[in-house]
Fold this protein.
Amino acid sequence: MKRNVRKTMKSLSQNHCIIFSAVVIVIALILDPLFVQIFSLLEPGEYLPKIMGQIIPGILILLTIRCILPKQKIGFARKGLLVGIGLGWIFIIYSVINLDISFISQHGIIMPPLATTAGFVIYSISIGFYEEIMMRALILNNFILNWGHTKKGIYKSAILSSGLFGIAHLVNLFYTPDLKIAIMAQIVYATTIGLFFASIYLRSKNIWAVIFLHALFDFAASFKEVFSTAVNEITDITVGNAFAFNLLLLPLAFIGLFLLRKVEPVNIKDEINKPNYRR
C-alpha cells in the first residue's frame, strides 16, 4: 500500500504538477492551524504552538520530497549560502526599511523577557523554513523537474510557483476578514518576493539562503509588535498605501527575472539519475 501511495503521489506530481502543488498547499494550510491548536492545549506559552505549526508541516513536506523527488538536491549544505545571501543584498535593505524605525523611535523600544525574544526569533525562522521548504524545495523543484529543460520552462517554473505562493496568502481572509485591502496587497507582494526568492534559490542552489532572507523579512515586519511600546491596533490599510508598498517592492520582480537569465537549462531527469548523484 505504501508503494502504491508513493507511486500515485509521484505520478500526480509529474503529470499534474500544478494540481499537485495546489493540493500540497491546501493540506499544509490546514495542518498549520491544526498543530497550533493541538500544542496550545498544553499551554506552553505564546510562541511554541506557532513554531510547531510551522516546523511539523515543514518536516512532513521534507518527507514528501524524499518520496517523490528522492534524489533531488534541496541545498542544505553550506555551499552557495553566501552566494545566495549576497545576491539577496537588496532584500536585506528592504527588511531594514520594514523595521519602521521612525514608528519605533516615536513610541519607544522595550526589551521583552528572554523567552519571548527567543520565541519570536525562532518563530520567524520557522516561518522561513516552512514556507521555503514548501514553495522552493518542493514546488519549484518539481516544476523545474517537469519544465526546466528550457529557458522558457525555467521562467515558467519560477513565475508559477511564485504565483501560487502569493495566492496561498488568501487564507489570511479566514483569520482577519476585516483586512481585505492589506491581504490583497500581501498576495501581490508575496508573488513579487516569491519570484525573487525563486531566482536566488535557483542561482545559489542553497535553501538556507532563502530561509534566512525570508525569516529576516518576517522578523522585521513584526519587530514593532514585540519590541515597541505602542498598542498594536489591527486596522486595514488604504488602497494608496497598498499600491505604494507594492510599487516599492516591484523592483524585486525585475531583479528576479534578471537573475534567472544565468540559470542554465539542464536535463534534470538525466542529472538526478546519475549513479553518484548526492544531495
User: Anything to note?
Assistant: Residues 269-279 have pLDDT under 50 and may be disordered. The CA atoms of residues 31 and 203 lie 31 Å apart. The two ends are 27 Å apart (CA to CA). The chain has one domain: 75-272.
